[in-house]
Design brief:
Elements: E1 2-8, H1 12-22, E2 27-34, H2 41-54, E3 61-63, H3 77-80, H4 102-112, E4 117-121, H5 126-134, E5 142-148, H6 163-167, H7 169-176, E6 182-185, H8 187-190, E7 194-195, H9 197-203, H10 208-219, E8 223-224, E9 229-231, H11 233-242, E10 247-252, E11 254-256, E12 267-269, E13 281-287, H12 289-301
Parallel strand pairs: 1-2, 1-4, 2-3, 4-5, 5-6, 6-13
Antiparallel strand pairs: 7-9, 8-9, 10-13, 11-12
Bound molecules: beta-D-ribofuranose and calcium ion.
Domain Inosine/uridine-preferring nucleoside hydrolase: 4-293
GO molecular function: purine nucleosidase activity; uridine nucleosidase activity
InterPro entries: I/U_nuclsd_hydro_CS, Inosine/uridine_hydrolase_dom, IUNH, Ribo_hydro-like
């Protein structure tokens, strides 16, 4: 299996992505790190622990940054609810995160690994940017980054910025300039690969996780059944890892606009390579939607 570290801000679509990753036999989740984003980092960490307990997993959880590098946090609790995972009544957490910071935990996991690890950030890139700034030698132990974030066209937070790159554009700039290979799974695919009524009905009583996801879906404001379905942004990054054949991609150079102003957090892809001689990212252009929807239902079938 592919060893991965998931960096996350659960978050309803994060919760579904984490579940899909844990129960996929092609992936080996070595560490989960949390960051502020959808809600504050106390809540995202608590949510990650809730999920581990729900799934009976002992994957270590490390708490990361509570603030973006330079900006103030602007959360997305209007989409995911006050707790970040509204809609399901999880028991109170009885386990604790690691005593070390997420950046230290990533460093340790990377340095102890017998093979390069894939980083899977499905949130703002604050922790990853700090890792690269504090311990640049870690880069050689990273196979690549497969991230949910960015957009080649419109945004979902401002006119052109996607939420994860908007929350911490300075961190995104550091990561895109890091030299580590990046796959950008952005809104271009994640906003079109909707989970629709038939899939939601299919998972509703499949198993205890299907029931839990179904309940979360009732409270999730990332799309609606009236508008065609729910956007499971972060799940698309996991789909890319295990079903890359569903995606059409292009190698290009992506720049991050990090200055304050209407374009802050925008990911500007030089698709014609008019301004750069070398590429820094593989961006997703298209996804096979029916195959993604089928894979989602099959994935839930593998859960407990
Ligand atoms: C991203 O923003 C968050 O709210 C989601 O969890 C996802 O990571 C989508 O823009
Ligand atoms: Ca997320």
């Amino acid at each position: 299996p592919i060893p991965i570290i998931i960096d996350t801000d659960p978050g309803i679509d994060d919760a579904v992505a984490i579940a899909a990753a844990i129960f996929d036999e092609q992936l080996d989740v070595r560490l989960i790190t949390t960051v502020a984003g959808n809600v504050n980092v106390e809540k995202t960490t608590d949510n990650a622990l809730k999920l581990m307990e729900f799934f009976n997993q002992s994957i270590p959880v490390a708490k990361g940054c509570g603030q973006p590098l330079l900006k103030e946090l602007e959360d997305a609790s209007e989409i995911h609810g006050e707790s970040g995972m509204a809609g399901y009544d999880f028991p109170k957490v009885t386990t604790a995160p690691l005593s070390m910071h997420a950046v230290e935990a990533m460093r340790q996991t990377l340095s102890e690994a017998d093979e390069p690890i894939t980083l899977v950030p499905i949130a703002a890139l604050t922790n990853i940017a700090l890792l690269f700034s504090m311990y640049p030698e870690c880069k050689s132990k990273i196979k690549r980054i497969v991230m949910m974030g960015g957009s080649l066209s419109r945004g979902n937070t401002t006119t052109i910025a996607e939420f994860n790159t908007y929350v911490d554009p300075h961190a995104a700039a550091i990561v895109f300039q890091s030299g580590v290979p990046i796959v950008m799974v952005g809104l271009d695919v994640t906003s079109t690969a909707l989970i629709t009524k038939p899939e939601i009905e299919a998972i509703k009583s499949m198993n205890k996780t299907g029931k839990m996801i179904y309940s979360l879906f009732q409270h999730y404001r990332g799309g609606s059944l009236k508008s065609g379905g729910l956007k499971m942004h972060d799940l698309c990054a996991i789909a890319f890892l295990v079903k890359p054949e569903l995606f059409t991609t292009q190698e290009t150079y992506v720049e991050i606009e990090y200055n304050n102003g209407p374009a802050s957090g925008a990911t500007i892809a030089d698709l014609k390579m008019a301004y750069h001689d070398k590429t820094n990212a593989e961006v997703c252009l298209d996804i096979d939607i029916p195959a993604f929807q089928k894979w989602f239902v099959e994935s839930v079938g593998k859960m407990i």
